[in-house]
Amino acid sequence: MTDRPSAADCYPPAVLPSPERQLSLKGQKALVTGGSSGIGREIAIELGWAGADVVVNYNSGDEEAQEVVEAVEQRCGVRAYAHQADVSDEAAVQGMFQRIQETFGGIDILVANAGVQRDAAFDEMSLADWDMVLRVNLTGQFLCCREAVRAFRRKGVVPEVSCAAGKIICMSSVHDSIPWAGHANYAASKGGVLMMMKSLAQEVAAWRIRVNAISPGAVRTPINRDAWETPEAYHALMKLVPYNRIGEPSDIGRAAVWLASDYADYITGTTLYVDGGMMLYPGFEAGG
Ligand code: BGC
Questions:
Q1: What is the whole-number distance in angstroms between the Cα of residue 217 and the centre of ligand 1?
Q2: 11 among known catalytic residues
Q3: pTM of the model
């Protein structure tokens, strides 16, 4: 890359956070992939609360997506629309970014959240299930991040809007670090997200593009219903969560707002674990 900005262009920050700007995303345009349910739904709503216009991407479930759009528009008074696209389909992702450009005039925040689980014992895992999880969780994030970086670089920093030219939040998992028997495809995809995120952050920092990840622990969503639905399952789950409660999707939504805001302007290439302490090796509390 030859057109790296000089140090003089990069310092001091174009905009210092002001009291009004704190945690405000006013005037910013955000895309949340997998935004029709679970964690993505709550991120879309929290971003709207913070003042951003929001695109709610989904693959299936038009009604759910439309319901999120209405919640964002009515409760938050910002603009929103739903866009159907499979994030692992290159042309569909490019079409989605094209529409954002035409509708909102650009993009400031990407939350690459869409993800799936297809669990199986390793020796019984089909290639289809392996491929499906890697395509959606890792290749899907690559395709969305690539289009976002292209758009951010075209736009550059707009000081009235944000200190950064763009912000990317990759949705990862505690399983980017904690091995997970019976879920090798999922853990491999999130381990891949971790290093893609860091490598990308290193590559685009000079353009004032911040790239970070959020790694949720156990959060009350449809993806892991079996782990919290019955009192027995919940009790077993709590052995893994020192903070002794399940995460709620809004726990992740609020973390995403902060990470996307100028409050977090000096943060890039990091993973924020939002997990009630799941990463703290709770088994060692009384052992070892
Ligand atoms: C998975 C959940 C799981 C959690 C903690 C998440 O990434 O999607 O199914 O409950 O990690 O193990």
A1: 6
A2: no
A3: 0.95
